[in-house]
From TrEMBL:
Keywords of this entry: Lipid biosynthesis, Lipid metabolism, Membrane, Phospholipid biosynthesis, Phospholipid metabolism, Transferase, Transmembrane, Transmembrane helix
Organism: Lampropedia puyangensis
Protein's GO biological process: phospholipid biosynthetic process
InterPro entries reported in the protein's UniProt record: CDP-alcohol_PTase-I, CDP-diaglyc--ser_O-PTrfase, CDP-OH_P_trans, CDP-OH_PTrfase_TM_dom, CDP_ALCOHOL_P_TRANSF_CS
Protein name in the entry: CDP-diacylglycerol--serine O-phosphatidyltransferase
Compartment annotation: Endomembrane system
Gene Ontology CC terms, in alphabetical order: endomembrane system; membrane
Membrane-crossing residue ranges in chain numbering: 21-42, 111-129, 141-162, 177-198, 210-227, 233-250
A Pfam family per the record: CDP-OH_P_transf
Enzyme Commission number(s): 2.7.8.8
Gene3D superfamilies on file: 1.20.120.1760
Source species, domain of life: Bacteria
Reactions the enzyme catalyzes: a CDP-1,2-diacyl-sn-glycerol + L-serine = a 1,2-diacyl-sn-glycero-3-phospho-L-serine + CMP + H(+)
UniProt topology in membrane: Multi-pass membrane protein
Length: 275
């Protein structure tokens, strides 16, 4: 009898099979993002829209970290991917829709909750499509507006309008604000399920050596944001939300492929998909 035959079964299970578990670190970050989405809904119910929008932005930051943490610690898992999608649905699908509805769109009756539902449904469709198309979409581009960016567009407008000291309510009627919120919510929702290419920034390598001027540019960007965070960031969100149309028109005019489905052949599993 050799050593492998003589080795007793693992105490972790009766039949010697190792029990499956989950990785705590990346899933804890995902749960924190989920909590932020839930917190945003609760704050909207309590009419604390300033805290609700900040919670959505906090969820965005955490959502950008959980995948990186998993890759850095080599703790990627199918469970983590599914957990991340469910967290995104709450934080970037349900929460922004309900916050927008509670803040302004209830004043326009059924049109308000219809816009909120369309946004929520489109977020679910976008996340489902992202999950099934992961292996065939060029990693440099998103197919449709990413759900965190759509949530930032909705929450950014609310943050801008509710920022203390601006007094926008003195210039814009409540009904007008409700219809503007309706248009933004509807635009963000529908754009998520289009095939427009949005740059993903995934090909930027933080560990790669960059010129010194790049650090100076980062400092300048931080300084510009601090001049007026709500206004500057909302402007950035609006620019990104329209960038997909610009890229689409530019590619169409140049005769380049406009689909983000395997627009590059750098990866083996993309071979032949351009034909």
């Amino acid at each position: 009898m050799n050593d492998s035959q003589a080795r007793p079964p693992s105490p972790s299970s009766p039949n010697g099979m190792r029990r499956k578990g989950i990785y705590m670190l990346p899933n804890s970050v995902t749960l924190a993002a989920l909590f932020c989405g839930f917190y945003a809904i609760v704050m909207a119910m309590n009419k604390r829209f300033d805290l609700a929008t900040l919670a959505i932005f906090a969820a965005m930051v955490l959502d950008s970290l959980d995948g990186r943490v998993a890759r850095m610690t080599k703790t990627q898992s199918a469970f983590g991917e599914q957990m991340d999608s469910l967290s995104d649905m709450v934080s970037f699908g349900v929460a922004p829709a309900l916050v927008a509805l509670e803040w302004a769109m209830q004043g326009i009756g059924r049109w308000g909750w219809i816009a909120a539902f369309i946004y929520c449904a489109c977020a679910a469709l976008r996340l489902a499509r992202f999950n099934v198309n992961t292996s065939v979409v060029d990693k440099r581009w998103f197919q449709g507006l990413p759900s965190p960016s759509a949530a930032a567009l909705v929450a950014g407008f609310i943050w801008l309008m509710t920022d203390e000291g601006r007094g926008y309510d003195a210039y814009v009627s409540t009904n007008t604000v409700a219809w503007i919120m309706f248009a933004i919510t509807l635009y963000a929702g529908i754009t998520m399920v289009t095939n427009l290419p949005f740059y993903s920034f995934k090909d930027l390598r933080a560990r790669r050596s960059v010129p010194f001027v790049s650090v100076v540019l980062v400092v300048l960007v931080i300084a510009i944001i601090n001049i007026d965070p709500p206004l500057v960031l909302f402007g950035v969100f609006v620019a990104y939300a329209f960038s997909g149309f610009v890229v689409y028109i530019y590619r169409r005019a140049k005769g380049h492929p406009v689909s983000v489905i395997s627009t590059s052949t750098n990866e083996p599993d993309e071979k032949g998909l351009h034909e």
